[in-house]
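Chapter summary example: a protein plus adenosine-5'-diphosphate.
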Amino acid sequence: MEIIHLSAECYPVAKAGGLGDVVGALPKYQTKMGHYAKVVMPMYHTKFLNTHEWDVDFKGSTNVNGWWFDFTVIKEKHNTLGFDLFLIDINGLLDRDSIYGYTDDTQRFCGFQIAFLNWLNHWQHKPDIIHCHDYHVGLIPFMIKYCYEYNRLNDIPTVLTIHNAQYQGWMGWNQSNFIPPFDSWKSGLLEWEDDINPLASAVKNAWKVTTVSQSYLEELRYNSNGLEALFEYEKGKCTGILNGIDDDVWNPETDKYLETNYTADDVEEGKQAAKGMLCKEFNLDAEKPLIIFIGRLVGEKAADLLPDAITSAMYTMQGNVNFLILGSGEPHVEWQLQQLINTFPGNYNSMIGYSEALSHLMYSGSDFLLMPSRVEPCGLNQMYAMKYGTVPMVRATGGLIDTVTDMGDAGGWGIRFLQASIGDIVHATGRAVGLFYDDKEALAGMRKHMMQIDNSWENSVHQYISVYQSLK
Ligand code: ADP
Ligand code: GLC
């Protein structure tokens, strides 16, 4: 099958979170299984752009309700990622340093979607599937069906994968001029609660909808930032498919960011080496249990609870625990997390920012990974942690339910708690600290067990292919 993935992110071209990881891996594994998967994304000014070679594939121009723009589609020359990668350049609109966060993001992503469909209109053949990821490309299923200009494409099946329903791309109707002329009788299919809602529109118009875990799919029907009734109504076309992890990037045996690679057989030595480096760099004590948090410092991840929870845990455990944080996000949370460095020197540290290299060292050199998320559609961090022999401490929600069991249950290996609250985080920390000091054998057993869990992409790819095939 020929599958086109449309996304705002794709690792290593441009990544802000798990969406990038998934779009960098899924097409590669689909290609390995004999399909022809391509990724089309906006051309940002990233390092990847400047360090790779490109061919110009297409040049076009378009006029949308008086908004004229030219665009260029470039293709990476050497198939470096294991699939064909196309970037769309719209001068001044997409070629920016960051992926998101601009006041004209609505126009940017509308322009991207329009340019893509204009390009597709010029193809001699049609792809088998257009696979849209998240709201940034959520207007595609509607535009293909109801924009007059793209009539020729309206029999191409579209699939939407929801990585995160918190963000929906709301646009006022005064921005409807960013959408090419369409059958106005269908405008209800763009809308949710009086706004144009690209995510809701994609759920209504895509032929099939998937989300990145089964538990999150169920949760959407009672907790989806206003779209609950829509998910209840459309449940028949929705499927939950758990993400996998890309073994080429996330594998302690081959990880290029680690000085000492390791497997389940020498996990203790391997982790000790990484922990030593980490503790030296961040002024921590390698003899104490090290709990890490990596991620966006936002409400969904319950990052706002971290400063107080860490303070409380530190006093409760009488300093017999270390914390290390890597992330960026809400400024007041960043500030509070920086302040704690002075409050608990030698026991706590944080790096505010983004570092792929440090994240690999942290998954490897820590004992526990904390994820108290309020919302977690799948979560990749816990899967990476397990692969590196690090015990996840997770709030039982979304994909965290589907990937982590509790060590108190037969055959269990992680620490689960029910509430995104300071009390639950401190209690979970107590269990982690107890395990570390009092039951080294159980901890070692868990590490070996977790490292052998199969969270590879192969299984998920089969499920995606079945979804596509059901549309033929
Ligand atoms: P989300 O996509 O909601 O942010 P996921 O758990 O799916 O959450 O994926 C997060 C991804 O982003 C992981 O690859 C994680 O290692 C990475 N990540 C998040 N924050 C940072 C950071 N500050 N530095 C490096 N990597 C980060
Ligand atoms: C989103 C979700 C995260 C998921 C990722 C990849 O960003 O917040 O839980 O793992 O997408 O699907």
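Key point: The first strand starts at residue 2 and ends at 6.
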